[in-house]
């Protein structure tokens, strides 16, 4: 019998119920990525306005030559570093949301929750899985953009699988490539469903932008927690179940990609 999964409305309702009376906790947990996102939007807006002002008073051909001077690739790489760190912080926040959804216990430190991925238990695995998943996605995108996007969705749950496997047995030697493979298998038939779930927040994103970013203080935790509700519903407890020590370990191959 085919398993039934929660609808988008059901996932969102679960999160709203979880946050009832605890919105302050949810907002403070997400305060760092929310503030950085708002600052980023302000900076981008300021840069665009400056470029428009400069182009209005500069010869177009000269402006083009200056724009494509040789420092672009270096600055682009440097710009990825803050984004990568922000991604790790968001991952830690999502770990905390996942625990909260499962335990229904809001008695935790928002500060510790925001930086939970930087703990000894999680950091190396979270860091390497993010690197590997990004690398594999990039390699697929070299072929065509669409396969890269599809693979990005396929690998999207790898870090949460790693968390579950590590929480299940902190002493276990969890394979990072195996987590990516399991994510690909888990998302088989569910990639479009996750895409539509993300797309369902588009209207709220527009409204949050029109509020000069203030709406993101509530929207960001709502979105992140809903994505964790999606994982919780999809994975269940299959990665939290104790396996026998005598069970053979699967050999990990390039099937991860």
From TrEMBL:
Keywords on record: Membrane, Transmembrane, Transmembrane helix
A Pfam family this chain is assigned to: DUF975
Keyword Protein transport among UniProt keywords: no
Coiled-coil region: none
Recorded superkingdom: Bacteria
Regions crossing the membrane: 35-57, 77-101, 122-150, 195-219
Protein name per the record: Integral membrane protein
Source species of the chain: Latilactobacillus curvatus JCM 1096 = DSM 20019
């Amino acid at each position: 019998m085919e398993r039934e999964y929660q609808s988008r409305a059901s996932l969102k309702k679960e999160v709203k119920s979880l946050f009832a009376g605890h919105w302050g906790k949810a907002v403070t947990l997400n305060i760092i990525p929310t503030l950085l996102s708002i600052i980023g939007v302000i900076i981008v807006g300021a840069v665009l306005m400056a470029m428009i002002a400069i182009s209005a008073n500069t010869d177009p051909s000269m402006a083009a030559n200056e724009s494509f001077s040789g420092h672009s690739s270096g600055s682009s790489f440097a710009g990825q570093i803050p984004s990568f760190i922000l991604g790790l912080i968001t991952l830690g926040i999502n770990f905390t949301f996942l625990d909260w959804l499962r335990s229904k216990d809001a008695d935790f430190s928002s500060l510790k929750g925001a930086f939970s991925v930087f703990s000894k238990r999680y950091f190396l695995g979270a860091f390497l899985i993010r690197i590997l998943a990004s690398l594999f996605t990039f390699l697929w995108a070299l072929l065509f953009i669409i396969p890269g996007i599809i693979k990005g969705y396929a690998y999207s749950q790898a870090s949460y699988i790693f968390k579950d496997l590590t929480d299940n047995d902190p002493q276990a030697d969890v394979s990072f490539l195996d987590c990516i493979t399991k994510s690909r298998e888990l998302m088989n038939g569910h990639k479009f469903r996750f895409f539509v779930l993300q797309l369902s927040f588009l209207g709220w994103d527009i409204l949050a932008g029109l509020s000069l970013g203030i709406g993101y203080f509530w929207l960001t935790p709502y979105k992140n927690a809903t994505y964790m509700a999606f994982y919780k519903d999809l994975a269940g407890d299959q990665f939290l179940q104790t396996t026998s020590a005598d069970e053979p370990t699967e050999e990990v191959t390039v099937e991860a990609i």
